[in-house]
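In this supplementary section we document a worked example of the pipeline. Step one takes a protein sequence of length 423 as its only input; no multiple sequence alignment statistics are reported here. Step two produces a three-dimensional model, which step three serialises into C-alpha cells for compact storage. The input and output of this example are shown verbatim.
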Amino acid sequence: YAAWHAGKTRGIVFAGLSFGHTPRAMGPVTCFKHGHILRNHKFEREDLWVRDGKIIDPQELFWAEKKEADIVIDCTGIFIAPGFIDIQINGAFGIDFSSVPEDPAQITRDLETVARGLLAHGVTSFCPTIITSPPAVYPVIFPRIRARAGGKWGATVLGLHLEGPFISREKPGAHPVECIRHSLERGMEDVLAVYGSLEDIAIVTLAPELPGAAQVVQELVHMGIKVSMGHTACHLEAAEAGVAKGATMITHLFNAMAAFHHRDPGLVGLLSEASFKADPDVFYGLIVDGFHTHPAAMHIAYATHPKGCVLVTDAIAAMGLSPGFHHLGKVAVHLDEHHRCTVKGTDTLAGSAAPMDACVRRFQKIAGVCGALDAATIRPAQALGISHRKGSLAVGCDADIVLLTKDLDVRATYIAGECVWTA
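The serialised model returned by step three reads:
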C-alpha cells in the first residue's frame, strides 16, 4: 500500500491509468504557432497551446489571465500530431524484452535505452511486449518493467503486452513451441501459475479457442486488462465468443492466424461485423514493414474497418541494428540486407525491424496522411481505453506531440509539453 500511495501522490502512470490530483495550472505557456494540427481525423490550421503538460484552451487563458504565450515555437510548414503509441514492440537497439541477462538489474536499464531511442521515431508511449517464454522468465522481468511516465529519460511505459504462452500450437509464428500452454481449463489459476502477477499488465494476447479461454477473457477484462486474440487457428464462432466475453483486439492481423476462407473467415471476419458499429469495439494490429502484410490485404482491411486499424511495429532487438543474427526470447533471428527478420534457418517471419515512423510513412500510401497518423495515435489510445488523455490533441489531453515534415519525417518529439528529442 505504501508503494501504491507514493505512486499515487506522484501522479505516476500504472498500466495506462493516471493517478494523483493535478493542481491548477500556473506554469509557463507554450504556443506551437502556424502549424497544421491533426484533430478529428483532419488537419486544422491553428495554434496549439500547452501548459503544465496538458493541451489547453487559449480562450480561457486570455479571458482569465489576460496572458500571452511565454514560449512560441514556429511550426510553419510542419504537421503537428499526437505522439505515436506502439502497443506491440518486443525490443529494439539490441535489446530483447523477453530475455533475462546475467544481472537482472540490467533489464530496467535496457528498458530505458529502448524508451529513449524510440523518441527519435516520434514514439511517446509504448507497451513492451513479452513473447511466449519459460515460466521462470516472467517473475524476473515483471518487477523490472513497470508502467512509468515518460520524459527526457524516454517514452512512457503504458504497461506490458503479454503475447503468449496461451496460444495455439498450430500458429506459433516465431514463438518457442515447447513453451506454449494449450489449455486454460483451470481458468485464472493457469494464468497466475505462469505469470505470477498481473500488475502493470496492459494487454494479454491469447487464442480464444483454448479450453477455458472464454472465462479467462472475461476475468482479465474485469481486471482492466485488454485481451487481444492472436496466434490462433480459431473459427469465426470462437472469435465472436471471445468478443462477447470482452476481447477487443486482434494481434497482428493476417499473421499467425487461420487464413481467410469464404465459408469461415476466422478472425478476419470480425472486421466486417465491427465496421457496422458507430464506435469501434474491435481493433486490429497491422504490421506495415513491407514484409508481413501485402498492400492489397492492408487495403482490404483498412477499407473494411478503418476505425479499428492500429499500427504496430512488432519490432525486435534487430531494429536499429545492422544485418546479422539477433534474438527474440529463446529464438535466434536473422536480419537480412533488406531488413527482413526470419527465424534462423527458416523462412518464418520473426517480428520486424521497422520503426513506427517508417510504418506511418509506408501506410500513408494506403490510408492517406491523416489515416496513417490516426492509426499510430488515436486508434491505439482507443484500443487501450486511454483516448481521454493520450493519442489526441484535444483540450485536456497530455501534451505528447510529434512535429513532422510534410514527408512525415520526425523533426521533434515532446512529452508532457517538454521537448525530449529534436533532429
